[in-house]
Amino acid sequence: RVTLHYVVVRPLFSEDSFAEQHERINRTRKTLRHHLKDYFTCDTNRAKNAARSLLPIIGWIKNYNIKEWLLGDIVSGISTGLVAVLQGLAFSLLASLPPGYGLYTAFFPAIIYFFLGTSRHLSVGAFPILSLMVGAVVTRLVPDGGPPANITGFEGLSMEQQRVLVASSVTFVMGAFQLIMGLLQVGFIVMYLSETLVSGFTTAAAVHILVSQLRFVLGLDFPGVNGPLAIVYTLENVFSDITNTNVADLVTSIVIMALVLIVKEINDRFKSKLPVPIPIEVIVTVIACGVSYAFNFEKRFNVVVVGEMVDGYESPIAPNLEVIKESAVEAFPMAIVGFAVAFSVAKVYSVKHDYTIDGNQELLAFGVSNMFGASFRSFAASTALSRTAIQESTGGKTQIAGVLSAMMVLIVIVAVGFLLEPLPRSVLGALVIVNLKGMLMQFRELPFLWKNDRTDFVTWVVTFVASLFLGLDLGLAVGLGAELFTVVCRTQFPRCSLLANITGTDIYRDRKDYNSIYEPEGVKIFKIPSPIFFANIDFFRDKLVQAVGFSPLKVLKKRNKALRKIRKMLRNGELEISDVNWNTELPANISVPPVNIHSLVLDFSAVSFLDISALKGLKATLKEFLRIEVDVYIVSCDVYIMEKLHQCSFFDDEIKTSIFYPTLHDAMLHILEKHPDHGELEKVFTVICKLSRL
User: Fold this and answer.
1) Is pLDDT above 70 for 96?
2) I need a labelling partner for 467 at 20 to 30 A (CA). Which of 165, 195, 538, 680 fits?
3) 567-592 burial, b for 16+ CB within 10 Å, e for fewer?
4) 632: helix, strand or coil
């Protein structure tokens, strides 16, 4: 293998000499006033761009390739629509609503997203975790086993109507939060939800969903529970009532789950050979409906069925203001979770198919979709991973497939919904549980996290446990707090190190990691790999003292005390010396801590910012070293940090700009010129000096 070499002959630069030889462009930075002026200035081009941004359909519909895309969108729309119908029915149970209302969630938001969304593959509709979070609000305000909350607007409504009103109202305020965040351009907020946090949260949510469906799978009848420790109370109800299990429901559920799991495995293994995945959920639902109707499961085996379906569309309703007040705190995490999941899924498919998505526009799209859908009695919409995967894998190219999927739901709502009335609810519960497989399998991430990143492991476990026992809304808040705490810890307590020169190179690495290193006598190179700010400046100083082996402040105090004693002895004629050398043996048993370095180099290559508190602490630390005759050099400092140092009067008679060097090697060559060491680096320096004279 040929080894490549590079040779650069240039002067040795400090920051001062570099600035003298290379003039920097003086750029004018925009102020907040300029940014606001640009933002609110409008012209023809900007109006067109704004229209395309707010209505992304304008951009892609004119480029729609009918010959190549239409057939795939039709097949995808039909396939996804069938699944959307079943998931809408099933996820309604999670929201503690009659099954038919899930069909509204599969229709209205999808229509609005068609015009406003930027993802071409997202299947918009019910999402199990959001449905469960809506269900928690619904059962809190309209519980199964007690009177509803004292809310104006509940008068004269049945329990079912009260629950629908609560679900639509909390969905409306959730959409309002998303719309406001979109208008404020805060789509970046999703970045604070790491994959680790989302994994722990969704796994806990999957366990919640699994437990909540046990009463349908087992055919038990007990009131739903919400709030902290709800999962414990639900399991207590299940086990205390398990002797009343409906055998027909249990057998049906087991058969359904076994069949669906087997066929899904076949779909995964032979997806390259199958033109479309086998729609096993649709097949088993049709069979279950037929068998239930033929053998009259409802009366013969006391099986709870879907019952009367919604017949067409109901008139729009306004959200209830009292419900909004009661549920606003829970609606905000729902808005974040719904957007975070949808954006994450959309990003995967946008990368795969080479197009861009806009996070802020996605917030607007989901905000308007949820607010519009809530007016027509739908509940919280986002996306379901399995449904989106079907839409993409069956040939979907654009949101035409999403609209066709909504049309399939429309047909069920207005024409054939009555055919689903004999469907046992245990079948829907079984389908929900089967679709949790992907989320529950996230437990497999734990060994990898434990082995490779203990901090992320802690974040995952804390988020999971908090979400499991405190509820999803509080659990998300605790998980986010734990995640931010780990970030603070990583920046507050970074892994500082002492560097050494790799022999024969201009490369410097941690001295503990290499054998072939060169360390000039009397020089310490200290690196802090994080920003320096108010929370870690003391840690930085402590680590620096630990690295050099002495405290400059203590040495300075000892020296001052020794000087006073020496002056007193000189006045009394007890001592005759002309100069004090602190590194030699001092007279009259005077003891001062030794200082075995003459130069300290601080590598700032990983320091991205300094705040005022850190700046003052750094200045005090540098002066302490300079006053005990240790030269301090700062290398690879960001130019904007340099500007801030100048603005904040960091430099004075003691701390000068000449201590700053553009690279670590420049500083080391300067030190070796000032303090010859006759080592390997000194030989390199000598060669460079000779070359520079040629």
Assistant:
1) yes
2) 165
3) eebeeeeeeeeeeeebeeebeeebeb
4) strand
